[in-house]
Design a protein that fits this description.
The protein is an alpha+beta fold. The protein has helices at residues 262-282, 289-292, 295-308, 318-332, 400-416, 431-441, 451-454, 485-497, and strands spanning 28-42, 45-62, 66-77, 99-108, 113-116, 132-134, 162-165, 175-185, 188-198, 211-221, 227-237, 246-259, 376-377, 380-381, 390-395, 421-426, 448-449, 461-462, 464-468, 474-479, 521-522. The chain is 19% helix and 30% strand.
């Protein structure tokens, strides 16, 4: 039986001619377990705490030159197993839930590993142009929520035993790697790689200057190329004394390898994508939980409920879905402003990308060729506007996309006059905030409260443009905003006002992926 594992992560230095090492394949999963110990010894602050860590790496896809994998890191306080007994109640020995972090990575056959940040919703799309970022460097003064130590670089092709690579954090010095012999890990022969990274003053401390050192040891199997043991120690001096003020010790070993196929693979991938898409959707909302109020989070909790209510016990990656659920519940209570997302959000606005959607499955809201739901806000009612096209523009005042959305609305109104109705709808913020944006831009637009239409149109991303024809049917939907948005809107409006003989109005779905979409965000 050919063992599975991270088969492409390390190039071995053999004593005999190298054999062809099997590569990591779709469905391979590696499970690591260990501990994270944090020790702080500063004046007035002295403590030591330990977490149990589990890291799962699951391969989603395999291409000719890389694999895409999900990495789930869970941390649980080692001393959190018992909860104090409340007088008059029975003992509750249920431990608190672990902290969870879900990352997607691309592992190239040359050893390079990058963070994948595909936009949602599920099913996720992985391709050569999927956005990537460098792996984050672990913090120097506390434990990390993520773990990528099982992905060491390849040894150089020239067989040299020592080499340097740039840090993923440009403010830190280079990493120096060395081959330090070999040994047995759980009865398997492994090559030992050691990485040292430190400030220039670590070996010769200077008063008043902080210094730190990071040492990683990775034991890599000579049989299948998988990392079988990882040990990292980060030590930091504050510059007040030569003694170590902070020490972070991370140690874990490979405990299980498996290859999942068919329905088991499908179940794992489904829960990974649900958790990731829901986390991406939630990430930009956390800091504004109090301002947004409970409704956005109640909607999202309802979307996750069917997956968590299933009688099937699920996969190990359901813990990531539960982590999103806990964050949504905290946000609903207005307590999420200090929480960190369990995923890395896609690139920020201004970077070409597909528009995200909070929907875990289908795109929410009315679709092209379906009736536009009626609603009334102020003096405007959609059914009363029958007989001419209507442009609905859902936008959130006070954010980066508001100005361009309002400029497009104003341009359409000036171009077509009374032949169409242009309806800017402020959502997730007071209408007065939209009026301030309009006045600041010196535009002549009416402003409407969009809250009455939020539910009917399932508005969960902004901005969102809809063109409704004279008969009340949706002809165009676009999520996001960019330089091309106004042109596309005019194209559809012109077709409705002056259709060519024998033709029908063009249709389009929500914003496609690619450079055309310059900015689209989930509610912030």
């Amino acid at each position: 039986m050919v063992p599975s594992g991270l088969l492409s992560l390390v190039m071995l230095i053999p004593t005999a001619p190298p054999a062809v090492v099997p590569r990591l394949q779709r469905g391979d999963e590696l499970t690591y377990t260990g501990t994270v110990t944090e020790t702080v010894d500063r004046p007035g602050t002295r403590f030591r705490r330990t977490h149990d860590i589990q890291v799962r790496a699951f391969v989603l896809d395999r291409s000719d030159s890389w694999v895409d994998a999900a990495v789930l890191t869970t941390l649980r306080r080692a001393d959190d197993g018992a909860v104090p007994v409340v007088p008059g109640r029975g003992a509750d020995r249920t431990p608190p839930p672990p902290a969870a972090r879900l990352d997607l990575v691309r592992i190239h056959d040359d050893g390079t590993t990058l963070l994948l940040v595909p936009p949602g919703p599920a099913p996720l799309r992985f391709a050569a142009d999927t956005p990537v970022r460098v792996l984050p460097a672990p913090p120097l003064d506390s434990f990390a929520a993520f773990e990528f130590g099982m992905f060491p670089p390849h040894t150089p092709a020239d067989g040299s035993g020592s080499w340097a690579i740039a840090s993923t954090d440009p403010t830190r010095p280079a990493e120096t790697w060395e081959v330090k012999g070999s040994g047995l890990v759980n009865a398997e022969r492994c090559q030992k790689l050691v990485m040292t990274q430190q400030t220039p003053t670590w070996e010769a401390p200077r008063g008043g200057q902080a210094a730190w050192q990071r040492v990683d040891e990775v034991w890599v199997s000579s049989q299948d190329g998988a990392a079988h043991r990882v040990h990292r120690v980060i030590r930091q001096r504050d510059g007040v004394s030569p003694d170590v003020a902070v020490c972070i010790d991370v140690a874990y070993e490979l405990k299980d390898q498996a290859r999942l196929i068919q329905r088991t693979y499908d179940g794992y991938r489904k829960e990974i994508e649900i958790a990731y898409a829901a986390g991406v959707d939630l990430a930009p909302l956390l800091k504004n939980a109090v301002r947004l109020g409970p409704q956005p989070f109640v909607i999202r909790l309802a979307k996750l409920a069917p997956y968590l209510d299933e009688t099937d016990p699920g996969t190990p990656y359901r813990e990531a879905i539960r982590a999103v659920q806990r964050q949504l519940e905290a946000a609903r209570r207005g307590e999420a402003s200090t929480l960190n997302s369990i995923v890395t959000p896609p690139p920020p606005m201004g970077v070409p990308r597909a528009a995200p959607s909070s929907s875990v499955g289908k795109e929410p809201g009315p679709r092209v060729a379906s009736p536009a739901p009626d609603f009334q806000t102020g003096a405007f009612r959609l059914t009363a506007a029958r007989g001419r096209p209507v442009v609905l523009i859902f936008f959130m005042p006070g954010v980066e996309t508001a100005d361009l959305s309002l400029a497009i609305a104003d341009g359409l109104r000036k171009r077509y006059g009374e032949r169409i109705a242009v309806v800017p709808l402020a959502v997730f913020a007071p209408t007065s905030a939209g009026e301030k944006d309009r006045d600041r831009l010196r535009l002549s637009l009416p402003m409407f409260d969009g809250s009455a239409a939020v539910a009917a149109y399932a508005v969960e991303t902004f901005p969102r443009f809809l063109v409704v024809d004279a008969g009340g049917t949706v002809q165009w939907v676009f999520t996001g905003v960019g330089a091309e948005t106004g042109f596309l809107a005019r194209e559809h409006i012109d077709a409705l006002l002056t259709p060519l003989p024998g033709t029908v109005a063009p249709t389009a779905t929500t914003s496609p992926p690619g450079p055309a979409v310059l900015g689209s965000t989930t509610r912030r």
